[in-house]
Amino acid sequence: MATHLVAAARKTFREIPGVVVSAGLMPKTVKVRVGGQEWNSRVSKFFKKPESHLVHDPNDSLRTGDVVAISPGWRMSKHKRHVVQRIIAPAQIPIEERPPVPTEEERWAEALAKRAAKDERRAVTKAAAEADRLAKITSKRELRKLAKKQAQIEAAEKEESIKEAEAEMRGEASL
User: What is the DSSP string of the chain?
Assistant: First the structure.
């Protein structure tokens, strides 16, 4: 991964405070409700319109009722686009008794390690495919050589049969 792209992607995003609505139903995922407002032009007034986001919780450290800070991150799945930054206020179990929430640097290091492993696997697969392709090319060459020899043998047999037929015709003509 290019370092300038990583640096650009590491720009700090805004933190959005929210409350964990459901936790423990999906692995590494919690639903967080964040506040929002909607303008009603008819009444000329803002009304509350909370939004719910599916948030990536790598260590399953959040519980229902926790107040957390989330931020937009890279897309983890079809609907998960946010990641937990920190726990602002725990609801039930103290923070010390839970698995820690990974920092941004830890998440980036893990993502870069996964990318490096994936690139390595792809390189191995590509090298194996190239070796297989070269093996097929050499076998095709051998098949071509074999086909050429077979064609030469058939041509020689055809010439022999023609000569025999000519000899028979001459022998018949002489009789």
Answer: --HHHHHHHTPPPPPEEEEEEEEEEETTEEEEEE--EEEETTTTEEEE--EEEEEE-TT----TT-EEEEEE-S--SSSEEEEEEEEEE-SSS-GGGSPPPPPHHHHHHHHHHHHHHHHHHHHHHHHHHHHHHHHHHHHHHHHHHHHHHHHHHHHHHHHHHHHHHHHHHHHHHH-
